């Protein structure tokens, strides 16, 4: 770690970011406009691959110009070598905000904004060739407190934030806390590579130093503006796990502690690592972003993730949107871990189960539409917060959907279904322009939109489908908050309903491009009357007339999609909860409640304890977790007069969350695991149905598990043995006692206990 440098004076115009963990940077001028809700449609942009608004940053100072894809030397990326930089930047996104706004986009997810490794990544091929890569994607962090100069300065980032917010568009940033960059080259005998982490100059008190524009400065006059903080090749302070690539290790320990693609894996159990990563997240929260997309959550320690989310949401400006990349492909032994990750950490999932099912149903036709409908209803049961799961057809980690499905009709049908199904839909940049790829790789799909086909046409059918259904998602709460019911399904046809109280949307879809099918008359609860297709015939749909409680039999032509909407007013008398953000927090944390009938004189309760309402309107309440709320899972209700709303699940945390790494030395029989149970909700409150996940045992017979628990608390607990679904067996003796340190950032280890017979 770089030593503190004491200076007699501070550079003129400099500002400070305190190193002390309890402090965060002062809030920037642009405050967030709110977290994601299921009414939003997200648009994912790989910043380098969207639009080049400022050619001056295509070759930043010190950058190897051969790593910019410009064979004709006109300072514009050619879009041909997708391993190299293409030139997209924040000014380019600003230039296309009218395009996004008109499409109905209400949130933009961009690449990580901070400085990345900027040297070549060389992959040596078996035949003697050499592939040259760059970190254009933003997943190779070098310095969390400086911007990626390929994208722009901090002032330009703030301009992007302000321009998006002025149009009511939320800003979500990619954020990587699992790793730095590749530190060993697996194509060259694991030769040493990079993986180093840097930080800005500090003053004599340990504060980071920036100029008035928020840029790091050379405060100590040594000719550089950043200092080496952690190095996986000389890791004297234990910042990295250093266990090598995961390879075929499919254990939970392997996924969380070994390396993903030889990327230097942070030891998220190290208190200094936790403090630095939380401080970095708060730095960007203070810049007014509306949410974080957390990278590689499958590979992260859930106790760390829960504490990070808690630290972010407890800082000024309230809760943010949090969703992450828990990459699975069912059938998968990690499915239960995946589906419960949002409940255990507060960070929701990118919905890879939706992606898998839609790819198979609409893309390669390997599963039926009935299978797809079963996925919708099954996950609506499996996911506690199903409408917060971020659904998608494709993204930067998988093949372009257009490569799998080149036919417009099933392509459009898949897109229309995405925008009307449960969850919060995410559109991968260029989907509206039918961007495809030359092969099935994820990199081949990371096209430079500026040079790809029609680029930014607003007349494509896909663009218009998004435009129409984004508007419906905002206006009919059935799409945003409703439950899902399958009305009819066959191999090729699906009719499903979304319903939020009396509000309903019925969607009928034929995936076959050239075959018509007849749908029988279906019972319905929408009133008699004529309902127009909300796509106005864009995908072949037409009006229908309901009579006698029946949706009449109708024919679906090839690729036809109908979207029929019943959207009555629910009035303002009865409060109804549609969504809550965030879904976990501690006393004093801000909570947003969304729905209808929430204006006027209302009472909000967490369990039986009344909360303070800060502000409210018919569609939203801002409140805080009351000091007397009982820790653990509680139901939020809203009362208005004699009317009480539906309930919404919320986890009240016992306090400021920190990690304790529990350890025990004990032998077991094959198939037996060790768990923990204790007297606080985070340890199950002595309920044997709520024991922790199994401890890890890479150094058997020593077992360990990081658990997120409240700081400054004395906890009681015991270890337990468990085999499969059998009842667990407690160790003997008295309850164990451990006092969690009061440090609200970081982590601590228990002693290595011995099993009590």
Automatic annotation (TrEMBL):
It catalyses: Endohydrolysis of (1->4)-alpha-D-glucosidic linkages in polysaccharides containing three or more (1->4)-alpha-linked D-glucose units. It comes from Acrocarpospora corrugata. It is an enzyme of class 3 (hydrolase). This is alpha-amylase. It comes from the Bacteria. Its EC number is 3.2.1.1. Belongs to the glycosyl hydrolase 13 family. Keywords: Calcium, Metal-binding, Signal, Transferase. Residues 652-757 form the CBM20 domain.
């Amino acid at each position: 770690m770089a030593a503190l440098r004491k200076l007699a004076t501070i550079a003129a115009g400099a500002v400070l970011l305190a190193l002390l963990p309890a402090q965060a940077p002062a809030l920037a001028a642009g405050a967030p406009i709110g977290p994601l809700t299921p009414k939003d449609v997200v648009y994912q942009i790989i910043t380098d691959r969207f639009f080049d608004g400022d050619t001056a940053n295509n070759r930043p100072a010190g950058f190897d110009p051969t790593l910019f894809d410009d064979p004709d030397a006109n300072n514009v990326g050619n879009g041909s070598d997708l391993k190299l930089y293409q030139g997209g930047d924040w000014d380019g996104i600003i230039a296309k905000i009218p395009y996004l706004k008109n499409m109905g986009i209400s949130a933009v997810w961009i690449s990580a904004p901070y400085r990345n490794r900027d040297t070549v990544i060389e992959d040596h091929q078996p035949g003697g060739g050499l592939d040259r890569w760059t970190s254009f994607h933003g997943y190779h962090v070098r310095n969390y407190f400086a911007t990626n100069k390929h994208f722009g300065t901090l002032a330009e980032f703030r301009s992007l934030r302000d321009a998006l917010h002025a149009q009511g568009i939320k800003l979500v940033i990619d954020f990587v806390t699992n790793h730095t960059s590749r530190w060993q080259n697996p194509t060259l005998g694991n030769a040493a590579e990079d993986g180093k982490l840097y930080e800005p100059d500090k003053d004599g008190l340990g504060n980071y130093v920036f100029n008035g524009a928020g840029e790091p400065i050379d405060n100590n006059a040594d000719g550089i503006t950043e200092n080496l903080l952690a190095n996986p090749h000389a890791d004297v302070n234990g910042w990295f796990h250093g266990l090598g690539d995961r390879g075929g290790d499919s254990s939970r320990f392997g996924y969380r502690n070994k390396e993903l693609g030889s990327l230097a894996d942070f030891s998220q159990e190290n208190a200094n690592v936790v403090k630095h990563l939380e401080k970095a997240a708060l730095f960007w929260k203070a810049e007014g972003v509306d949410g974080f997309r957390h990278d590689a959550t499958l590979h992260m320690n859930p106790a760390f993730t829960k504490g990070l989310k808690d630290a972010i949401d407890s800082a000024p400006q309230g809760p943010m949107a949090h969703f992450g990349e828990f990459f699975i492909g069912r059938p998968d032994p990690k499915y239960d871990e995946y589906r419960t990750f949002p409940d255990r950490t507060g960070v929701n999932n990118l919905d890879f189960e939706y992606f898998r099912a839609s790819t198979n149903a609409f893309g390669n036709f390997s599963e039926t539409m009935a299978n797809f409908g079963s996925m919708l209803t099954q996950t609506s049961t499996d996911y506690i917060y199903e409408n917060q799961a971020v659904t998608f057809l494709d993204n930067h980690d998988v093949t372009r959907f257009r490569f799998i499905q080149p036919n417009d009709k099933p392509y459009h049908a898949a897109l229309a279904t995405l925008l009307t199904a449960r969850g919060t839909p995410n559109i991968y940049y260029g989907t509206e322009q039918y961007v495809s790829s030359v092969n099935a790789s994820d990199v081949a799909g990371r096209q430079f939109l500026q040079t790809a086909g029609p680029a930014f046409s607003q007349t494509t059918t896909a663009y218009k489908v998004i435009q129409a259904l984004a508007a419906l998602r905002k206006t009919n709460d059935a799409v945003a908050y409703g439950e899902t019911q399958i009305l009819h399904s066959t191999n090729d046809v699906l009719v499903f309903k979304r319903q939020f109280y009396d509000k309903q949307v019925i969607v009928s879809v034929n995936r076959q491009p050239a075959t018509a099918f007849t749908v029988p008359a279906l019972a319905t609860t929408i009133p008699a009357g004529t309902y127009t297709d909300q796509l106005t015939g864009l995908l072949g749909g037409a009006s229908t007339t309901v009579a006698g409680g029946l949706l009449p039999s109708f024919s679906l032509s090839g690729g036809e999609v109908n979207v029929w909407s019943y959207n009555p007013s629910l009035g303002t008398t009865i409060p109804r909860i549609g969504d809550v953000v965030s879904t976990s927090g501690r006393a004093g944390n801000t909570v947003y409640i969304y729905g209808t009938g929430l204006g006027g004189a209302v009472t909000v309760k967490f369990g039986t304890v009344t909360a303070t309402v800060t502000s409210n309107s018919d569609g939203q309440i801002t409140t805080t977790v009351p000091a007397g709320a009982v820790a653990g899972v509680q139901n939020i209700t809203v009362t208005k007069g004699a009317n009480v709303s539906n309930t919404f699940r919320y986890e009240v945390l016992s306090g400021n969350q920190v990690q304790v790494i529990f350890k025990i030395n004990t032998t077991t029989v094959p198939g037996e695991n060790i768990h923990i149970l204790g007297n606080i909700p985070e340890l199950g409150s002595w309920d044997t149905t709520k024991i922790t996940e199994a401890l890890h045992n890479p150094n058997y017979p020593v077992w360990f598990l990081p658990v997120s628990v409240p700081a400054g608390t004395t906890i009681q607990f015991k270890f337990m043995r468990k085999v499969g679904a059998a009842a667990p067996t407690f160790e003997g003796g008295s309850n164990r006692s451990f006092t969690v340190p009061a440090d609200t950032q970081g982590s601590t280890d228990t002693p290595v206990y011995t099993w009590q017979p």
